[in-house]
User: Fold DUF2306 domain-containing protein from Flagellimonas aequoris.
Amino acid sequence: MAKTVRNKVAWVVFVLLAIGIGLYPLFYLVTSGEFGLLLGKDEAIRNSEVWRLAFYGHIIFGGLALLSGWSQFSKKLRAKKLELHRNLGKFYVISVLVSGLCGIYLGIYATGGIIPSVGFISLGIVWLFTTIRAYMAVRKKDLSLHQGMMIYSYAACFAAVTLRIWLPFLTIIFGEFLLAYKIVAWLCWVPNMVFAHLWVRKKGLTLG
Assistant:
């Protein structure tokens, strides 16, 4: 009984975090002037049309991926509304492709130099790779591989949430944003991948 309650609470927290951070890009769209991460960028970068296009493509479609992706883990949705599950899955894949490619480009210009740059570029590659594999697997009706890769994919997607959890704490601990940002470029997603690996093993999914 207690385990069931814990699982339900964890699910509610998971969904609320995904929705909350998924809606976060709206602040960039409704706020006039520079906001959030834009404040930390050099003027030359902020004035680049290509960079700004990649930035907004990344945050908007990344938000859409967060908003649509959590639903793929709802057993009730798969059982009762399979067609909706499939359509949301396709929407998620498209959102990841746009956001992931934009994210890899943005990673080249990451604040703090090579360490966060490699961290965010690696995250983008992992996110794209696992999502594409998940999509190809379901096309081949390999549901075990599909489910496993979707767990890894959304764990990478959820880095948007864990980044915003870790970054304030690390900034307070170290008293310096730049050092915290270098660490969080890896901390926001590597533990997520470890958790995903343990989840995949627990479910007994075969990844090929």
Notes: The two ends are 35 Å apart (CA to CA). The chain has one domain: 8-202.
